Automatic annotation (TrEMBL):
Residues 1-22 form the signal peptide. The keyword Signal applies. Keywords: Signal. This is Outer membrane protein beta-barrel domain-containing protein. It comes from the Bacteria.
Length: 251
């Protein structure tokens, strides 16, 4: 597993290399139509949320900013997502690579939590005994017109997901299914259900840990701008927790 020590650096270098190719390709034509249809496609987005949960667990209780950067080359996407609270109580940055084929996609993700306020962090520490990274592999079925349900299967294959008695990996697994209901032109509701099939990072036994819904609507501000607003109600039956979260997409 020593090669995992260069995962973050390798992903960053590949991202920069692909971006350089993108710049060369987009500069080879002055046609607007050609430029629009060129790949790769660089996309930026950002959210403001009242708090943040992940798979039924609360990761931070403070208001936070969540930037996202994606670089897509045909069916391949390299990306980065972050979460930073306004009170510096929590930070997270995730790197990921996704390949999409038809209605299916496979992803490799590296979750990492730096310590805010520390001059020197350990971003390159992938030692099984001390790393704060989590390496996740997941497969997702995105649904079809006739079957508009997504299905997700995820396993944490390395990192800070260890059995307390042996310090070996637990291979925590998580399954989720979801459905999107379009109410009208500017409203939709996402419904989801998730759980773990064994004792894992998510629960002390096989359990449903994530049931909820997210309602989305564009609200008009200043009479001309549409601001995407969403509200999530999330319940964790295993730990009898409930979360009510407000979010706004600003980009």
């Amino acid at each position: 597993m020593g090669n995992l020590k260069i995962w973050g650096t390798t992903l960053l270098l590949v991202t920069l290399s692909v971006f350089s190719i993108a710049q060369t390709e987009s500069g080879s034509t002055d046609s607007l139509q050609s430029t629009v249809t060129q790949t790769p496609l660089l996309s930026l987005s950002g959210d403001i949320k009242s708090r943040h949960t992940w798979r039924g667990g609360l990761t931070c209780s403070a208001m936070n900013l969540q930037p996202t950067l994606n670089l897509r080359v045909k069916n391949f996407t390299l990306g980065a997502w972050g979460c930073y609270t306004v009170d510096n109580s929590y930070a997270e940055i995730d790197l990921y690579a996704t390949y999409k084929l038809g209605n299916f996609s496979a992803s490799l993700l590296d979750y990492y939590n730096p310590i805010e306020g520390v001059k020197k962090n350990d971003v390159f520490d992938y030692n099984q005994d001390s790393t704060r990274h989590l390496i996740d592999v997941n497969v997702k079925f995105h649904g079809t017109t006739d079957f508009p349900v997504y299905l997700l299967a995820s396993t944490l294959i390395y990192g800070a997901d260890k059995k307390p008695d042996s310090n070996s990996n637990r291979y925590s697994t998580y399954f989720e299914a979801g459905y999107t209901c379009h109410l009208r032109a500017n409203q939709q509701v996402d419904i989801f259900l998730g759980g773990t099939p064994h004792k894992s990072y998510y629960a002390t036994e096989a359990a449903i840990v994530n049931i909820g819904m997210t309602a989305r609507q564009n609200i008009q501000v200043f009479g001309q701008y549409n601001l995407p607003l969403y509200i999530s109600m999330i319940v964790n039956p295993k730990y009898e927790n409930i979360y009510f979260i407000l979010g706004i997409t600003i980009l």
